[in-house]
Structure formats: structure tokens, C-alpha cells
């Protein structure tokens, strides 16, 4: 029955071939190339000298730690907020449509615009301090002697700064995790939950033992996607703190490729790229292994 | 009953708080984008943009000049300008206050203060989009960057739709081998961190003569989007009713006609959705554009770099950010219902 349409193309494999070539040329080849480049010594020949330089740099350890802390801590915070919000919206309270609509706003914003937004906020005379002043938080903080004058947000450093970035990231991406979980919830048959309640489970139990396991595929998808992009954080950090202040893996890639311009710094950038790629791969593989769900693409 | 009301109130307080947390940063950005130079440098900043300015004008009899004052953020009246020459004043008002008032109009309005010898208030409307126009002037090359962003997005849409659509069709309608492997591959490339191949990609693109071109960028953006398009179109090709196509063939239409007249309209929504995704990928990206272009910037890149400029151009940068946000916002809202289907 499919013969007529099939004949439109002589061989169906012709449909796949261009894409395979595309990926070989623009995906597989660059990955291999990055491996080769990272192993090219400045003097010629293959060696681990680039990796050695990278490992010995004082920025490598903080970059790794910051990136991992950022990715995992933000994931945990965002997941619980997103799950709570998704469950809330799923109760279909009056106005939930509007609420969902509002939640979509941060999802839509380009990273560069988010950078501008929070940069304007975190300046000393920025809108965050303005807001604190207006709602009286500033004077409250001053009376309990937590702060002395306006907070200089941009002076935060180390882990505090990473947590500030986590907060901004939470504002930005929690809605997108929520949407994916919500999609899972909406496909979910409420009768299971009701049955559990009838048989004497309390609400928390039914959530933990019935709802979560059933929407597990959506949760895994959401978390995995989030984890991958969390490991790729850099722009927001650069737009608020500039380069080098709070190093992240990709921030280092951009720094060595674009800010520093010597022939050798390019190699370090590639080495950082390869390390990032490997970390993403390892995290994804471990993650899917640990939370071994079914193939979540298939319903 | 009473417990219910308490519960409901708590719910709505929670919901409103979260909504405010989401809206307020965005609102402030919008307000800054409409602010004039004086407002940008004031503290505390206004949450809601103001579209008029009230100027307090006073005539000094002894020295024979007008002084212009204005209520500042803390509520006190502050003299901002001394008028000796109306042309200069008109220029000042335009630059610092976003007011577009001609010198003759100013002269006429201010004369009241001289004649009555009283302090008068004059109200002017701000030129609302002044900062948006200024954005293109202050950050040179941003008009070209805007054009570049659109170009990169269109290329991405085109590449993703043709390559991805072909895979989607093959997966849904043909009996090729290795479908499992192909759908797995489309998933992997969708999740692939494209930034991490951008550095070696630069070398490659230079070799192919595509470095610093929008086509080069579009190729990178297409890497995840071909997979995504394949996924979306696969499911729509599966769901299109084959009997419709067969009926068309029975009634004498040839295969090409059937494909164009029957199949295409039915699968168009899927292509529209994946095109919007492709657009958003290209439009929102900064990292790849930073690594793979030199002179041909994209709008997002200009916005990213604008922050490094002096703080006196903050409000122009904010206008640029709003311009960058608008298309992304529109497409995300259009895609709203699709997001659910996509990951369900």
C-alpha cells in the first residue's frame, strides 16, 4: 500500500545519506579534529603537553569545581521547585493558564538579554537594590546589621558568586523543567492516584509511589537536558563578573580562544573543549545508567 | 469550609509571589529601555516606565536666565539645566531627557515663566523609542548584526527542514533498516553540546571558506536542530492519514501533486514548529557566534558585547536586549502547545 509514495524516491536510503554526510563532515570530523588538535605539541608531534599546561594552570581546578557545583546544585534546587510548580499547575486552579503563561517568559529570553537584565540589577544603583529600598528590605537589613549601605553584588567572589549565578539560573530555567514535567503529568491518568488514595495511601505516599514513578520518563528527560546545559554555563558569568573572576569550563574555552590570542592559547582552548565534552558524556552516561528509564522518546 | 479559604489564600499568595519574581526583573529591563539618561543614573530606579517629563521652569530676573528643575528619584526638586540658548537647551533635552521639543516651542512655553514671574510646570511627552533608535547609533554595526541574525536563522531553518524532514519522512514512511539506530542518533545530536566543537570548527570553517559567515554559523546551529526536526516530522508523517493520499492517487492525481496538495499542507504545522525551534536556536545563541565570527556579528553578540561599554549607554543596551527578546518571546509563545507534545 505504501508502494506509490515509496516510488517517488528511487531508494529511501537517499533520504538519509545527505544527513549522514553532514554529520560526518560537521560533527564527527570536528570532534576528531579537536582530539587531534589538543594532542598537537607546539613544537610538532603528538604529546600531552597541552593537557599538562591546562591541568597545571591555576584556573583549571576552580573551573571544574565551579562547573560541577553549578550544574548539580542548580539541578537539585530547580528540580524541586519545578516539580512543586508543575503539581500546582496540574491542579488546574483558577488562573493556572495565566500563571503558565507568565512562567513561559524566562524560557524565551536569549542568554545575552538575561545577562543585560541581571547586570543592570546587580549594579550598586541597579534595580535589585532599588527594589530592596522600595519594599523596605534595605532598611530591615540595615537595622539587623546584615549589611552596611547598599549591597555591592558584583564584589561577591568564590562560591558565593557561584550561588548568585545559581539563583539567576534558577530564575531562568526552572520554567522549562516545569513544562516538561507538566507535560508528563498531563498525560498521566489520574485514576491511578485516586485508586491509591482509596486504598488508604496518603497524599505524599501517592505522590512518591504512584505519580513520580509514572512521570519518571519526563523527569529524566528534563533533568538530563538541564544537566547538559548546566555544564555549559559561561555567558551569564562573563556578563556579570567578566572573564577569569569566576572560571567555568566553557568560560575558559572562550577565554583562551578569544580573549587571549597566542597560538598556544588556542590549543588550551581545545583541551578545555575536549574536557568539557568528556565531562558531559560521562555525566550523561552515568545519569542515564543510574536513572535507567525506558526509552523516554517512545510513549 | 474555613480551612478551604485559608488554603486558597495561601495558594494565591504563593502564586502571586512567584509571578512577581518572574515579572519584576523583566519589567525593570523594559523600564530601563525606556528611561532617559537622568533616570538611568538615578536611584532608586522606577519599576514602571514614565512616558512624560514634568519640568519646573523658573526665570531669574537679575541674571536673565531660565532654570530648569526636575523632581529626582528621592522626591526632591533638583535644578538640572540653566537656559542661555534655546537651541542648546533643545539639544540637551533631547540627549538627556529623550524630549523632542523644538527651540521655538521651548521659547514660547518658557515665556510664561518670564511674563508671570512665577515658577511654572511644563509637561512634555518623551520620544518613546528614542533609546531603540540610539541603540543602532551607539553600537555601530548593530543594524548589520540584526540582518545577520535573521540570515543565520533562515539558513538554519532551511538546512534543518530539508535534512531533518528527509530523515523524518524516511523513518515514518519507508522500510529502511536501522531505524532504531537513526532515532537514537537524532536524540544524541539533539543533546550534543555544540559549543565544545566550536573551537576546532573554526579551523575547519576557515578551510572551507565559511568562517565569519552566517552559513557557517547556521551549519553549527543545525547540528541539534536536524535531529529535532527529524523527531517532530517523523511523528507528524506517522499521524497523517495515508488514506487521504491514496484517495488522491485514486482520483487521478500523480504522486507529485499528491505530495504537494495533500501531504504538504498536513505536515506543515510540524515544519512550522521545528522552524521556530531552529529560529530560536540561531537567534538566541551567543557562544558559537562569538567563537566563529570576526566581523560579521549577530545581534545577540552585539548585545553581549554592549555590556562591556561604558555605563552611560546602559539604557541603549537594554533597548537592544528588548529587541533581541521580542522575536524569541513571540516564537516561544507560539510553540507553547508544542513543547508538551515534544517531550511527552
Task: Explain how this protein is built.
The complex is a heterodimer of chains A (299) and B (344). With 299 residues, chain A is mainly α. Chain A has a single domain (47-290), classed as MetI-like fold. Chain A is built from 15 helices and no strands. In chain A, helix 2 crosses helix 15 (263-290) and helix 12 (216-231) packs antiparallel against helix 15 (263-290). In chain A, 38% of the residues are buried. Chain B is built from 15 helices and 4 strands. At the A-B interface, helix 1, helix 2, helix 5, helix 6 and helix 7 of A face helix 1, helix 6, helix 7, helix 8 and helix 9 of B.
Overall geometric form of chain A: globular
- Number of DSSP strand runs of chain A: 0
Report the structural category of chain B: alpha+beta
> Could you spell the SSE succession of chain B in H and E letters?
HHEEEHHEHHHHHHHHHHH
Tell me the β content of chain A.
Answer: under 5%
**Order of SSEs of chain A:** HHHHHHHHHHHHHHH
Query: Compute the gyration radius of chain A: what is it?
Result: 24 Å
- Per CATH, the architecture of chain A is Orthogonal Bundle
- CATH topology type of chain A: MetI-like fold
**CATH class designation of chain A:** Mainly Alpha
CATH class of the largest domain in chain B, named Mainly Alpha
Number of helices of chain B: 15
Poorly predicted residue ranges of chain B? none
> How many separate domains of chain B?
3
Number of domains of chain A: 1
Low-confidence stretches of chain A: 294-299
Most strands sheet of chain A: none
Please name the CATH topology of the largest domain in chain B. Answer: MetI-like fold
Termini separation of chain A comes to 26 Å
The number of helical runs of chain A is 15
Mean pLDDT of chain A: 86
Amino acid at each position: 500500500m505504501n508502494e506509490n509514495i515509496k516510488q517517488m524516491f528511487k531508494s529511501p536510503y537517499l533520504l538519509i545519506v545527505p544527513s549522514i554526510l553532514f554529520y560526518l563532515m560537521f560533527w564527527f570530523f570536528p570532534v576528531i579534529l579537536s582530539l587531534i588538535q589538543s594532542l598537537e605539541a607546539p613544537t610538532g608531534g603528538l604529546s600531552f603537553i597541552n593537557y599538562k599546561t591546562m591541568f597545571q594552570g591555576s584556573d583549571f581546578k576552580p573551573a571544574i569545581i565551579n562547573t560541577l557545583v553549578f550544574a548539580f546544585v542548580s539541578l537539585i534546587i530547580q528540580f524541586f521547585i519545578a516539580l512543586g510548580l508543575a503539581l500546582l499547575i496540574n491542579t488546574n486552579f483558577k488562573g493556572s493558564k495565566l500563571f503558565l503563561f507568565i512562567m513561559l517568559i524566562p524560557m524565551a529570553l536569549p542568554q545575552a538579554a538575561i545577562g543585560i537584565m541581571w547586570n543592570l540589577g546587580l549594579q550598586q544603583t541597579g534595580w535589585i537594590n532599588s527594589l530592596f529600598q522600595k519594599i523596605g528590605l534595605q532598611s530591615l537589613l540595615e537595622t539587623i546589621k546584615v549589611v552596611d549601605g547598599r549591597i555591592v553584588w558584583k564584589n561577591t567572589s568564590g562560591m558565593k558568586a557561584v550561588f548568585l549565578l545559581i539563583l539567576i539560573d534558577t530564575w531562568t530555567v526552572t520554567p522549562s523543567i516545569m513544562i516538561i514535567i507538566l507535560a508528563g503529568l498531563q498525560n498521566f491518568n489520574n485514576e491511578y492516584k485516586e485508586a491509591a488514595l482509596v486504598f488508604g495511601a496518603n497524599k505524599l505516599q501517592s505522590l512518591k509511589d504512584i505519580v513520580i514513578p509514572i512521570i519518571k520518563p519526563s523527569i529524566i528527560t528534563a533533568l538530563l537536558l538541564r544537566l547538559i546545559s548546566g555544564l555549559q554555563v559561561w555567558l551569564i558569568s562573563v556578563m556579570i563578573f567578566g572573564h577569569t573572576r569566576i572560571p567555568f569550563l566553557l568560560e575558559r574555552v572562550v577565554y583562551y580562544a578569544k580573549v587571549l590570542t597566542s597560538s598556544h592559547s588556542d590549543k588550551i582552548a581545545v583541551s578545555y573543549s575536549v574536557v568539557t565534552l568528556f565531562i558531559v558524556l560521562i555525566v550523561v552516561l552515568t545519569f542515564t545508567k543510574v536513572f535507567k528509564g525506558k526509552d523516554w522518546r517512545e510513549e | 469550609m474555613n480551612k478551604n479559604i485559608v488554603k486558597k489564600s495561601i495558594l494565591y499568595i504563593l502564586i502571586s509571589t512567584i509571578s512577581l519574581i518572574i515579572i519584576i526583573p523583566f519589567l525593570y529591563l523594559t523600564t530601563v529601555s525606556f528611561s532617559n539618561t537622568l533616570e538611568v543614573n538615578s536611584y532608586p530606579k522606577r519599576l514602571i516606565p514614565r512616558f512624560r517629563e514634568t519640568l519646573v521652569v523658573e526665570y531669574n530676573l537679575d541674571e536673565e536666565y531660565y532654570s530648569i528643575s526636575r523632581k529626582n528619584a528621592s522626591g526632591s526638586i533638583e535644578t538640572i539645566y540653566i537656559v542661555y540658548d534655546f537651541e542648546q537647551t533643545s539639544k540637551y533635552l533631547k540627549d538627556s531627557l529623550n524630549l523632542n521639543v523644538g527651540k521655538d516651542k521651548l521659547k514660547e512655553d518658557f515665556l510664561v515663566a518670564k511674563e508671570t514671574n512665577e515658577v511654572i510646570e511644563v509637561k512634555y511627552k518623551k520620544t518613546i523609542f528614542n533609546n531603540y533608535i540610539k541603540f543602532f547609533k551607539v553600537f555601530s554595526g548593530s543594524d548589520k548584526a540584526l540582518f545577520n541574525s535573521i540570515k543565520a536563522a533562515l539558513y538554519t531553518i532551511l538546512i534543518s527542514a530539508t535534512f531533518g524532514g528527509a530523515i523524518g519522512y524516511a523513518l515514518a514512511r519507508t522500510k529502511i533498516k536501522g531505524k532504531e539506530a537513526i532515532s537514537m542518533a537524532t536524540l544524541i545530536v539533539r543533546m550534543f553540546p555544540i559549543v565544545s566543537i566550536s573551537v576546532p570548527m573554526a579551523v575547519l570553517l576557515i578551510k572551507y571558506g565559511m568562517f565569519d559567515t552566517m552559513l557557517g554559523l547556521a551549519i553549527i546551529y543545525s547540528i541539534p536542530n536536524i535531529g529535532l526536526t527529524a523527531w517532530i516530522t517523523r511523528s507528524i508523517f506517522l499521524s497523517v492519514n495515508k488514506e487521504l493520499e491514496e484517495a488522491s492517487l485514486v482520483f487521478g492525481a500523480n504522486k507529485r501533486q499528491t505530495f504537494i496538495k495533500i501531504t504538504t499542507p498536513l505536515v506543515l504545522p510540524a515544519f512550522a514548529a521545528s522552524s521556530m525551534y531552529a529560529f530560536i536556536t540561531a537567534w538566541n545563541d551567543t557562544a558559537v557566534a562569538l567563537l566563529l565570527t570576526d566581523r560579521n556579528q549577530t545581534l545577540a553578540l552585539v548585545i553581549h558585547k554592549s555590556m562591556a561599554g561604558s555605563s552611560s549607554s546602559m539604557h541603549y543596551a537594554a533597548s537592544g536586549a528588548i529587541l533581541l527578546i521580542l522575536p524569541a518571546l513571540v516564537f516561544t509563545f507560539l510553540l507553547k502547545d508544542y513543547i508538551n507534545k515534544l517531550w511527552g
